[in-house]
Amino acid sequence: MAEERSASRLNMRRLAVAALAASPLFVLAAFGFAEMYKYFFMSQASSGATCHGCHEKLEKKLVDQWRESAHYRKGVMCESCHGEDHEQIFSVDGRVSAKVCGDCHRKAYDEFLKSKHGHQITHTKYTDRDLDKSYDTVGGCYLTLGCHYSQRKAEDGTQGSCQPCHPSHSASLRVSRDPRICNKCHQGTDNPQWEVYKNSVHYAIYSVDGVRGGGASCVTCHMPGATHDDGQFVNSGLMERQGLPKLSFVKTIPKDQFVAKRSAMIQVCRDCHASKIAKRSLETADHFLERGAIMVEEAKSIIEKLYEEKLLRPMPEDRDPNLFTGSAFVLGGRQLFDQHSSDIERRFYEMVMFDFPFMWRGAYHNLPELQTWHANEKLKGDLIYIRNEALRLRNFAGMYREKGLPPKPDGKQGGGDAGGSGGKGN
Ligand code: HEC
Ligand code: HEC
Ligand code: HEC
Ligand code: HEC
Ligand code: HEC
Ligand code: HEC
Ligand code: HEC
Does residue 363's CB lie within 6 angstroms of at least one atom of ligand 7? Predict the structure, then answer.
C-alpha cells in the first residue's frame, strides 16, 4: 500500500520534471491551473537552473531561511545536503540522513550515534519491522516526523536523522535549544517529561529570565557543553545493591556505571546548586523509583498467580489473540496490542505504563506536587484496586465451585464478566 503510494508519487514527480521541457498547455491539461503556474515557471528555469534559483519560486520561505543560516554564509548549498540527482531526491522524498550532516559535523554525529536518539530501535520485532519497511506508523505513533524519527534507518542504509532537533533550513540554534523542540516527543502519558518540567521552578525561571537568569532547560541538564551524547548523565534505573528485590520494570545498573553517570549529572547541577542539595534531591528521586517499582512488582505477581490459577476473565487463550504475542500471557508494553484484556490486566497496564513513569519522572524533574499527590497516590490506588479485584475473582471462583460450575466462567460458556451484579437479570 505504502509502496504503491510512493510509486505513484514518484511517477507524478517524474512527470513534473518532464514538464520542465513540456509546453504549458500540456501541463495545464495534466495538472490544473494552480500546478500549471509552477510547472510553467519551471520550464522557464529549467536550463541551467540552480537548486535555489528554481526552489525560490516554489518554496520561497524555505530558501529565505537557508539564506539566513550559517550554512549559507559558509557556502553550504542545497546540493551539499540533498545531492544533485533530482530523481534520487524524489525517490527519498527529500530526506537527508544524519550521515550526510555527519560528513561535515563529525563530533556531533559520533556523539549522536552513541545516544539513544541515534540508536536504531532493535529491541522488538515489531518496531524493527515498522522502522525498516514503512515510515508511516509505529504502533499508532507516526514515524514520519514522529517520536522515533531520529532513530530511523535512512534510505542510504545509514542510521538516524538530525532533523527532529534541527528542523528548519535556518539551522537555528535558538530553536534547537528551546525545550519546545524536545516536547514534541518527550510528553504524554508514558513519558511526561514536559508536563513535569513545565511546572517546575527551573522552567519558571527559564521562561521568564532564560538561562542567563539562572533557569535550566532540557538542554542545560542533558546536553551541557553542547554534547549530543545525552545519555552520559542519565541512569534511568537503580544502582545494584544487596537486598534490592528483583524488579521487572526497572533496570538495575552496576555500581561503577551508576556512580559515573550520577556524578556527571551532579556536576551539571553544580553550576547552580550546592552538591549536597543536588545529591539529596536525586537520591529522593531514586527512592521514589524504587518504591514505585516495588508496588508494580506486587501487582505483577498478583496477576501472574491469577493466571496460573486460571482465574483471569477471560483467560488469554479465550480471547482474540494479541496482535504480537498471540495467546501468550504478557504483562507490560505489549499489552497495548491486546484489545480484549481482562479488567485487572488493563489496570496493570495503566499502572506500569502511565502512573509509574509519571511518578518517577516527576521525581527526577523536581515536581513534588504532581509526583506525590498525583502519581504516587494513583499508583497506590492501582495496587489497591488490583488486590481487591483478585479477591473478588477468587470469591467468584469459590462460589462457582460450590455450585458445581466450571471454575473458569469464560465468555463462551455464558459465564460472562457479571461483576457480581447478576448480568442476566437472575
Ligand atoms: C527547475 C526547477 C527545479 C530545480 C532546478 C530543482 N528542483 Fe527540486 N524540486 C522541483 C519541483 C517542482 C519539486 C516538487 C516540489 C513541490 O511539490 O512543491 C522539487 C522537489 C524537491 C525536493 C523535495 C523532495 C520531494 O520529493 O518533493 C528537494 C529536497 C529538492 N527538490 C531539492 C533540489 C535540489 C538539491 C536541487 C539542485 C540539485 C533542485 N531541487 C533543483 C523543481 C526543481
Ligand atoms: C544543511 C543541510 C540542508 C541544506 C543545505 C538544504 N536542505 Fe533541504 N532539507 C534538509 C533536511 C534535513 C530536510 C528534511 C528532510 C528530512 O526529514 O530528512 C530538508 C527538506 C527539504 C525539502 C522538503 C521540505 C518540506 O517540508 O516539504 C525541500 C523542498 C528542500 N529541503 C529543499 C532545499 C533547497 C531548495 C535547498 C537550498 C536552498 C536546501 N533544501 C538546502 C537539509 C538541507
Ligand atoms: C557541507 C558541509 C555541511 C553539511 C553537509 C552540513 N553542515 Fe551544518 N554547518 C556547516 C558549516 C560550515 C557550518 C558553520 C560552522 C561555523 O560557522 O562554525 C555549519 C553549521 C551548522 C549548525 C550551527 C548553526 C549556527 O548558527 O551556528 C548546525 C546546527 C548545523 N550546521 C546542523 C547541520 C545539520 C543538521 C546538517 C544535516 C541536515 C548539516 N548541518 C549539514 C557545514 C555543513
Ligand atoms: C536531541 C536533539 C538533537 C539531535 C538529535 C541533534 N542535535 Fe545538534 N544540537 C542540538 C542542540 C540543543 C544544540 C545546541 C546546543 C547548545 O549550544 O547548547 C545542537 C547543536 C548542534 C550544532 C552546533 C554546535 C556544535 O556542536 O558545533 C551542530 C553542528 C549540530 N547540533 C549538529 C547536529 C547533527 C549533525 C546531528 C545529527 C547527527 C544533530 N545535531 C542531532 C540538539 C540536537
Ligand atoms: C523525534 C523525537 C525526539 C525529540 C525531538 C527529542 N527526543 Fe529525546 N528521546 C527520544 C527517544 C525516542 C528516546 C529514546 C527512548 C528510549 O529508547 O528509551 C529519547 C531519549 C532521550 C534521553 C534519554 C537518554 C538516555 O540515554 O537514557 C534524553 C536525556 C533525551 N531524550 C533528551 C532530549 C532533549 C533534551 C531533547 C531536545 C533538545 C530531545 N530529547 C528531543 C525522542 C526524541
Ligand atoms: C534540572 C535538570 C533537568 C532538567 C531541566 C531536565 N531534566 Fe531530564 N533528567 C534530569 C535528571 C536528574 C534525570 C534522571 C537521571 C538519572 O536517571 O540518573 C533526567 C532524566 C531524563 C530522561 C531519562 C529518563 C526518562 O524520563 O526516561 C529523559 C528522557 C529526560 N530527562 C528528558 C528531559 C526533557 C525532555 C526535559 C525538558 C522538558 C528535561 N529532561 C529537563 C534532569 C533534568
Ligand atoms: C542553570 C541553573 C540550574 C541548574 C543547572 C539546576 N538548577 Fe535546580 N534550581 C535552579 C534555581 C535557580 C532554583 C530555584 C532556587 C533554589 O531553590 O535554590 C532551582 C531549584 C531546584 C530545586 C527546588 C525546586 C523547588 O520546587 O523549589 C531542586 C530540587 C533542584 N533545583 C534540583 C536540581 C537538580 C537535581 C539539578 C541537576 C540535575 C538542578 N537542579 C540543576 C537552578 C538550576
Answer: no
| DSSP symbol at 329 | -
Mutate to test the pocket of ligand 2, among 78, 104, 109, 169 (most ligand atoms within 8 A of CB): 169
Predicted confidence at residue 374, as pLDDT, reads 80
Domain boundaries, the chain: 96-164, 284-410
How many Cα atoms sit within 13 Å of 77 on the Cβ side?
8
pLDDT lower than 70: segments of the chain: 1-48, 121-145, 406-426
CATH number belonging to domain 284-410: 1.20.850.10
The torsion of the CA quartet 242, 123, 187, 369, rounded to 10 degrees, works out to -10
pLDDT in tens, 379-407: 999 999 999 999 999 998 888 888 887 65
- As a whole number of angstroms, the distance between CA 135 and CA 144 comes to 5
CA-118 nearest atom, ligand 4 = 5
Cell of 423: 448480568
